Amino acid sequence: MEVTMDPLFLAWSYFRRRKLQQCSDICTKILQDNPYDQAAWSLKTRALTEMVYIDEIEVDQEGIAEMMLDESSIAQVARPGTSLRLPGTCHGGGPTPAVRPMTQSGRPITGFVRPSTQSGRPGTMEQAIKTPRTASTARPVTASSGRFIRLGTASMLTNPEGPFINLSRLNLAKYSQKPNLSRTLFEYIFHHENDVKNALDLAAQATEHAQFKDWWWKVQLGKCYYRLGLYREAEKQFRSALNHQEMVDTYLYLAKVYQRMDQPITALSLFKQGLDHFPGEVTLLTGIARIHEEMNNISSATEYYKDVLKQDNTHVEAIACIGSNHFYTDQPEIALRFYRRLLQMGVYNCQLYNNLGLCCFYAQQYDMTLSSFERALALVANDEEQADVWYNIGHVAVGIGDLTLAYQCFKLTLAFNNDHAEAYNNLAVLELRKGHIEQLGDLQSSYSAAQKSEDAFPEHVDTQQLLKQLRQHFAVL
């Protein structure tokens, strides 16, 4: 006689091995035979939640509504070094745009793509509309819920017959009194259904049933308030949760609230308070380094990234950011060691080989430069990456004096990404060297462009010299 495994045990085994769809299918068959099997119901709920789970700590996208219609700010003009919206005011030894590329908001390009590192906070509504809000599209995110929008509900996608749980018929008060089921149900409503209102109601009733002593439910209340934009209420819940139980995640959630309210100094002190309770915690050290980096305090950020590597020497973000800092401080040989370390760890993508090619070129290891760029071209995933690789090859061609190759590379860059401003600028310089000047003597346009350049980068020497020459010419006239 053939002995078969118990279906529920098999579903649990699939769940532990992250085979979530098989787990859900088996639970569905169990529930068809016995609709009141709480174990199968709970396991299927957890499997469906894990399919669309979003890490609330890491993933965050700020839309135009949150940036331009923010009413949580106390002062319109913050003191120097106390705001993430005015990173250029920090006197922490940040690099100039002549050495390190800057985003449109004035922050240096980081070595690791994170939320809000692509463009930063715009200063005006016009700038907000023009600024790309994500790495893949120039369209701005209009609200904080933009990244949660899916084609149809997640329930419809995973269950063709309709939603697994009909939330409108659910008695939340009954489930809030069952500690195990209520937590599973909350995770399903919050992550799978993206129904913050019902999740908030369930969390509030469960907190009341626990006599306001359960730290976990207070954290969930804080997450709901944060997603609704009620940052002060979220702060109260996270603070209360910390009074009941010291947890690393709670510190991270609370620091995220302070960063959204543009209080980086408070967030830094909170991270350091968390390090007192959890010495050497990598996520807290990384949070401190990120804030210093966003405030242009690159030297302090690098020190904290080094502390991160002392605790976890395989931390990809720390290695990439330290390597990027060494590259922009004219130490390409040291940067090359960090990027090679990433390669040894199994990081295998277009961006890494692109960086390796640049480091090899500036470290005068020309035999490895073109092979790295060839590998980068073989690993491109979209047209934007292809454009960046060709732009860097063109930059190398300018460095070795092959202007014909450089011209072709910059043309290819624009073929893949016609919004690549640096390629347009370099093509204009090459055309100028060839003597292809279409307009002569347009001094007024030159003066206007030079003034805009001075506003963007006041310390640029070439701009200052050009303005001086133009003013002398106007004085003679």
From TrEMBL:
Origin: domain of life: Eukaryota
Q: Provide this UniProt record's keywords sorted from A to Z.
A: TPR repeat
Chaperone as a keyword? no
Q: In which residue ranges is the amino acid composition biased (Polar residues)?
A: 133-142
Enumerate the residue ranges of region (Disordered): 115-142
SUPFAM superfamilies associated with the record: TPR-like (SSF48452)
Please provide the Gene Ontology terms (biological process) for this protein.
non-motile cilium assembly
Show the Gene3D superfamilies listed in the entry.
Tetratricopeptide repeat domain
> What residue spans do the TPR repeats cover?
350-383, 387-420
PROSITE patterns linked to this entry: TPR
Pfam families according to UniProt? TPR_8
Protein name, as recorded: Tetratricopeptide repeat domain 8
Gene symbol here is TTC8
